[in-house]
Amino acid sequence: MRYTARKILTLLVTMLVVSLLTFAAFDMISGDPAATLLGTQATPEKVEALRTEMGLNRPMLVRYGEWLAGFFTGNLGVSFQYRQPVQALLGPKMLVTLCLSLVSFVLIVVVSLPLGLLSANGKLDGLHTFLNQFCMAVPPFFTGILISWCFGICLRAFVPGDFPGLDRNLGKSLVYLFFAAVSIAIPRVAMTVRMLRSTVISEMNKPYVRTAIARGNDRRQVLWGHVLKNSLVPTVTFLGQTMAEIVAGSIVVEQVFSVPGLGRMLVASISSQDYPVVEAIVVILAFWVVLSGTLADLVNRCIDPRMGGIGK
After folding, report:
1. Which spans are transmembrane here (predicted)?
2. Per-domain residue ranges for the chain?
């Protein structure tokens, strides 16, 4: 119970601090959302009337208190730009970003685990070093441009900039998201392989492994049965951090592939000073970061019970 209570408290405090800092940051920066919406031709009276309608003329703490009360009742406010409830506006965007993040994470796990074990076993060592450094050096947006040109324009595997929509064509949408996910996954696969390789090599040099191999046990069985299990705890922790980083990577990649997700909406909302939308997206991202770490802790406790019971 203490573990669960501590994680819930961490989640609430993180989201509270992030939301307050976001509110304060937008309150301090220059710019007027009402003037932005009405344009340069609007009279000061019209701008002030719209500010009153939006509630922007009230103190920041009062507006934050109202937003916080609405947040705990499922009301994230109304978008300044679209004049729609924020939760209804972000629902489809959040689903797209979630699918993109999950596809990216699956790619990272499926590719990096076998590559990490192969490279730690002395195979593909030179090739691993070259590819690892190269993949980590290439930024996701550049990889996304190359993938769009190669697979989109040349091979016509998908149409760049024309995301079908999950509700209209699920198959084509997943293919589209797969190519976007590849550009997110490539540098993170390289980092995961390097981390897993160093962990496995360190584990292979421990006395219990040498003793097991000296007694005639098959090296492959020792690797998969003992070394891999003991190497999974730091790997899972690293993958938990990677889950949080994937969302940050998706912000850039969604721009390159024109994917209508949270990242693209966040950039557009910041440009248009749509504070309620930005506030909601930032809180969602903070929740995702804390949740990623919590899931990694839970998986580690299942792998290694010595870390303590989940219920403690």
Report:
1. 94-117, 137-158, 170-190, 280-299
2. 2-71, 87-307
